[in-house]
Amino acid sequence: MYDDNATLLGVKKEIDETKQGEVFYYDPPIEGLKKFYIESYGCAMNFSDSEIVASILASAGYGPTRDMESADLILVNTCSIREKAEDNVRQRLTIFNKLKRQKPEVLIGVLGCMAERLKSKLLEQEKLVDIVVGPDAYRDLPNLLAKADDGDKGINVLLSREETYADISPLRLDSNGVIAYISIMRGCDNMCSFCVVPYTRGRERSRDAYSIVAEAKDLFDRGFREVTLLGQNVDSYKWSSPDETEHVNFAQLLERVALVHPDLRIRFSTSHPKDITNDVLYTIANYENICDYIHLPVQSGNSRILSLMNRTYDRDWYMGRVNAIKEIIPDCAISSDIITGFCTETEEDHQDTLSIIEWADFSMSYMFSYSERPGTPAARKLKDDVPEIIKKRRLSEIVEKQRHTGLLHNLKDVGKTFKVLIEGDSKKSDQEFKGRNSQNKMINFPKVNGFRPGNYVMVHVTSTTGGSLKGNIVT
Ligand code: SAH
Ligand code: SF4
Ligand code: F3S
Exposure of 224 by Cβ count < 10 A (0-12 exposed, 13-18 middle, 19+ buried)? Predict the structure, then answer.
């Protein structure tokens, strides 16, 4: 999920609904503690990190609140992926700063990718920011806060080759108690030419497999029924025990988590097409509780553009992986990320992207106009030469193609019956539940007595609204 006004189609995601970022809170706030308020932007990794931050702050005597005005500490966990994402954060900082003028004792902190990208510049540009903390430095928060309380600006943007926060139990603050994220790796060693993530998140490192399985087990014991294993490139997960006697790759990790309990569903994000192995696909096929859904960002359907993007695969390779998925996991839904208007993209290149959406039959995609990011290989070596107006037009053509492809995808589900995990009340009515099937499609259906969030039910799909499905519980 990305929430810098990304164009979203297909299955609706919870967090994308709010352009303000997600607010984590405890209701009621814990009495007697100092209170922090946090907003998170960007990808699921950032949302997951905010839960780690909440846990670290709790141990430093800070309890969470959803009320910004009563907070002693206001944090914003930021994203740098596109210019728009940073603009959104700057707007929020203006609002926090207004509050600080009225209440000078409140501390304001910038966390995450923008903190890492801009470092001390943030303290210079945003005079009312007190602390700046990069994604690998959250353990230092209590120390930086103590300094800030004494009037010193605190900054720690050191990236680490080891930090995975493996021993920190995230505080699941704004949770429905049914689904949760588990971070399995951090950083990214791919150098996609358009992407700022390798610079903001540092080198790839994988978390101890035992701590991941233990977290999944703990979540299951607490009633959670679905976990999403998170990383920028989960397929390159690779962990070795300290004595080097045990090596766990992503397929093996998936299996270990699947074995926690047959009623615990497993999802994962994101897979890089160059790394997704047949071993991973067979593991998904072998376990009913590993969902038949793969987010496999293509970025472009044109091989020349893919090469300029340094994605290290071409159109044929991508199609080969999609064919392998369809052969090994016939019911698997595939979704994508797409960038339009990348440097030198022609109309023909754009047509290749349109055609691959249809060919691969994406159930949904996140679609973006290319946004040049300072310091990336594309910014240094290529000209951002597709005019904004053309980017916009191509994006709307892509959005339309995906809308149509997604609708046909959903229409094929009408008349079928799916196993659905109930997540809570539907958006529209407290008389209806919402839940997803294995293919990650959101389905709304009338409540039936005796069922509650966390239960699995069989739902017969009767119609689609385009973005989601409607149905009825069958027994
Ligand atoms: N690690 C994931 C993606 C993380 S960023 C992967 O490789 O698939 C999420 C998405 O943002 C990317 O897939 C890409 O589609 C988009 N994105 C990244 N940098 C961008 C940029 N400079 N301009 C526009 N979109 C970008
Ligand atoms: Fe960015 Fe590429 Fe890494 Fe994804 S794989 S985070 S797009 S560099
Ligand atoms: Fe944004 Fe950082 Fe995620 S740049 S997409 S929050 S890794």
Answer: buried
CB of 190 shorter than 6 A to ligand 2: yes
CB count, 10 Å around CB of 105? Answer: 7
Tokens 């998936």, residue located: 254
Q: Determine the topology of domain 11-156 in CATH.
A: Rossmann fold (3.40.50)
Instruction: Give residue 7's pLDDT band: very low, low, confident or very high (50, 70, 90).
Output: very low
Distance 270 CA to ligand 2 centre (A): 9
Pairing mode, strands 185-186 and 205-206: antiparallel
Least distant ligand from the CA of 367: 1
Q: Whole-number mean pLDDT of the chain?
A: 91
- State the pTM of this model: 0.93
- Residue 10 in this model has a pLDDT that exceeds 70: no
Which range is least confidently modeled, 8-12, 191-195, 327-331? 8-12
Q: Which two tokens stand for residue 245?
A: 């006697």
- State which fold the 417-473 domain adopts: OB fold (Dihydrolipoamide Acetyltransferase, E2P) (2.40.50)
User: Which protein residues are within 6 Å of ligand 3, measured from CB?
Assistant: 2, 42-43, 45-46, 79-81, 112-113, 196-197, 200-201
